[in-house]
Amino acid sequence: MGAYILRRLLFVIPTLFGIMLVNFALTQFVPGGPIEQAIARFQGEGDVFEGIAGGSNDVNIGSGESESAYLGARGLPPEMIARLEIEYGFARIVCTDGFEGTPDLKHPECEKEMIPLLERFGIMIWNYLHLDFGESFFRDAPVFSIVMEKMPVSITLGLWSTIIAYVVSIPLGIKKAVRDGSSFDVWTSSAIIVGYAIPGFLFAILLIVLFAGGSYWQIFPLRGLTSDNWDSLSLGAKIADYFWHITLPVLAGTISAFATLTLLTKNSFLDEIKKQYVMTARAKGLSEKSVLYGHIFRNAMLIVIAGFPSVFIGVFFGGSLIIETLFSLDGLGRLGFEAAVARDYPVIFGTLFVFGLIGLVVGILSDLMYVAVDPRIDFERREG
Length: 384
Fold this sequence. Notes:
Elements: H1 2-27, H2 34-42, E1 58-60, E2 66-68, H3 78-87, E3 91-95, E4 110-114, H4 117-129, H5 143-178, H6 183-197, H7 200-211, H8 235-273, H9 276-283, H10 288-306, H11 308-326, H12 332-342, H13 345-373, H14 379-383
Antiparallel strand pairs: 1-2, 3-4
Helix pairs in contact: 1-13, 5-8, 5-11, 5-13, 6-8, 7-8, 7-11, 8-10, 8-11, 9-10, 10-13, 11-12, 11-13, 12-13
Domain ABC transmembrane type-1: 151-370
Subcellular location: Cell inner membrane; Cell membrane
Pfam families: BPD_transp_1 (PF00528)
């Protein structure tokens, strides 16, 4: 098992490399890059896309050559645009051989040189190997510290939603399998199908309208994970305040996972109930409870545990952006969305790296849970 885990861990490296390569390539074709965003902010336009239809003109930028201006760059000194390109890592200052002193665009022996795409990607990967995610273009802070600051919010929502989905869905799925075809099975299946059909964001809006002061009751807060007076609360009050704030976001993130996991559990138990070893156990005079939890449970739960990564990742990825935005939670999903809008490339790549790493690690944990539930599973022998 140790060799298998080592191989899986080593496989994480090329997978993350592929994720970063694909997304780095995609960002090169997206209009309105970070330079144009910065220009729009300097000119007070707020959003670069307001000027996208304005066309382009030619200006002299730093090195003396005539280049196509960035959209919305009219009126800004060319030297400022060149310095932005250098600051954001798209260009560098090169000086003639034998030049002494600090490289500066104002010096006649120095000029701006654009860095090729492959070289920029190589620099980024080399920095990532040293856990250097760079600086945010617009937040004036290291990407690593920003990501670490936002991660607990997303992890909190993902874990609580997944745990609640499993705690509720597994007993419900088992009961539905035992009472298959009964009125209880029919009406719970109808409720589950309705819940599965409701998009997470629509359910979140419904919760806000009903319970967060939208139009009816204001039972739960609308934003944040803690109250403003958090620091002055006692330990018990802090715990109560925390659960008070996460109730609606967690419910909104759980709805789709709950439906899928319940039906998966029911179908898994139904398949096992019909097998010969179950009939043999019953013929030996074992009670129905002993048959169900002593024989069926371990085998039926394998496929349910196999679905743990997809449930957690589905809630963690899919719920992060929508739920965090609707409930004003400052997590990774909202951070990634704001970075994509602002074209803050270091933050975009940093969040993608973290999301990809978490997904791969959870996949490895799923295999370990397989072995914990059924020690007969040997991944090394299967691969051999």
